[in-house]
Amino acid sequence: YWFFYHKGYKGMRYAFVHANMMRKLRLMILEASSKHTTQEYAGEERVAKLPRIQIIFDDGMTRGKVIIGNSIRHHKLLEDMNISSALGKYIVSEQYFSDDMNTYVYEFELAETDQLAFKNYKDFQLLCSKQENGTLFIDDRNRVPLHHTLIVGSTGSGKTYATYSLILQLLNFSTVPEIYFADPKCSALYVVGKSISCDKTAGSANEIVFLLQRFYEAMQKREQEAQEYLNNKLDSDFKDWGLQAHVLIIDEFSSFQSVVNTLDKFTRDRVNMYLTNIIQKGRQLGFFMWIIMQKSDSKILPTYLRDNLVFKVVLGQATDTTYQTAFEEYADLPKRNFQQGQGLYTFQGLTRQPKVCSFPTLKFDILKAVRTR
Ligand SMILES: Nc1ncnc2c1ncn2[C@@H]1O[C@H](COP(=O)(O)OP(=O)(O)OP(=O)(O)O)[C@@H](O)[C@H]1O
Ligand SMILES: [Mg+2]
Q1: Per UniProt, where does ATP bind (predicted)?
Q2: What does the pLDDT read at residue 40?
Q3: How far is the CA of 251 from the centre of ligand 2 (A)?
Q4: Is 158 annotated as contributing to ligand binding?
Q5: Which residues line ligand 1 at a C-beta cut-off of 6 Å?
Q6: Interior/surface letters 253-283, b for 16+ CB within 10 angstroms, e for the rest
Q7: Counting C-beta atoms within 10 Å of the first and last residue's C-beta, which end of the chain has fewer, N or C?
């Protein structure tokens, strides 16, 4: 019986992990329900009323689902319960009620993410060639479509390197996007930008304002062209029209904003107008903004802009305030000892709650890579 109950036919390891997890989950639910319910339920009865628990692993046992039968008695309990401690090497990545509300589902995955490491650019390109066009990979498990992006993390958390890995992927798209670079610290990204798009790389605040203006004007031009396409097909976007994407990357966004704040009101208003328009209209037209900064402070990046950055990443060890401002409120963040390039992300419409991810370790010369195109 044990053998079949724990699916021993899928292998002994499967059965043992299954059995162990099941035991811990039952204990946990028992304990939690004794806190939730009143004394009128005697011990025996409580055991009898344990909800139905199902554990399913995927083939490689890297992720799976715990499905627990829902009932009025357990409804609130299931929502509040953090089952991660019963999952051993796994952590919960998403939790939700099934559509029919009959069960509560916890999706889990192995706690250690397999951070990809590339010793040379060839291997990186090979993985790029296996992606669906227009899609960016983060690691083995996580892929996202090109979109407005926010990357947050304290200094040294690997933001710029994460950005490199995304830029290198753009360079391997079948239609390579036009990339604009703004690096107010004139550091490494500036140099990378100069070798990719020399005339679209800016360092000083004035240059960046001008770059923003050019990006905005290019978008306006496309907006006019798009009218015709849109008349033919309402919900189409730049990909359907066979047009190239444009991506504007602003690293160290807070330094840029703090310099902008010292400029005249006319310029400040213009910058705001550009940013707002690009973020609101960009997706359909294929104009995307990637903002990189240390803290997603609402004084620097207004909430209405931040909310429209669809792909959000927080790298490294971050404060609760950083998580809150980036992701709004979430009860149980899968926080861990994040190293460089590792952290949490959300993508509106794809993730229900922040997910663990790790950007690849790049052990090759980035500058050489962008030059060998
Ligand atoms: N994915 C990675 N692959 C290889 N090295 C990395 C990676 N991420 C970070 N590093 C190393 O850590 C250093 C700091 O990373 P990075 O410059 O990306 O951090 P940052 O978040 O942009 O910091 P800052 O806010 O100071 O600009 C890099 O110079 C590099 O040596
Ligand atoms: Mg940086």
Answers
A1: 153-160
A2: 47
A3: 7
A4: yes
A5: 153, 155-161, 294, 340-341, 359-362
A6: bbbbbeebeeeeeeeeebbeebbeebbebbb
A7: N
* Selection from 299, 312, 296, 301 nearest residue 346 by Cα: 312
Question: Which of 326, 349, 345, 325 has its CA nearest to residue 334?
Answer: 345
What is the pLDDT, as a whole number, of residue 36? 60
What's the 251 CA to ligand 1 centre distance in angstroms?
13
H helices of the chain, in order, are 2-5, 12-36, 43-48, 75-80, 121-129, 159-171, 188-196, 205-232, 253-260, 265-285, 303-306, 320-327, 366-371
**Ligand with smallest separation from the Cα of 152:** 1
pLDDT, tens digit (0-9, with 9 covering 90-100), for 299-317: 899 999 999 999 999 999 9
CA–centroid distance, 364 to ligand 2, in Å, is 18
Query: Is 34 one of the annotated binding-site residues?
Result: no
Kindly report, as residue ranges, where domains of CATH 3.40.50.300 are found in the chain: 117-371
CA of 362 to the centre of ligand 1 (A): 10
Which ligand lies nearest the alpha carbon of 340?
Answer: 1
Residue that is written with structure tokens 């509106």 in the block: 348
Q: Is 326:294 a contact under the CB 8 Å cutoff?
A: no
Indicate the fold that domain 117-371 takes in CATH: Rossmann fold (3.40.50)
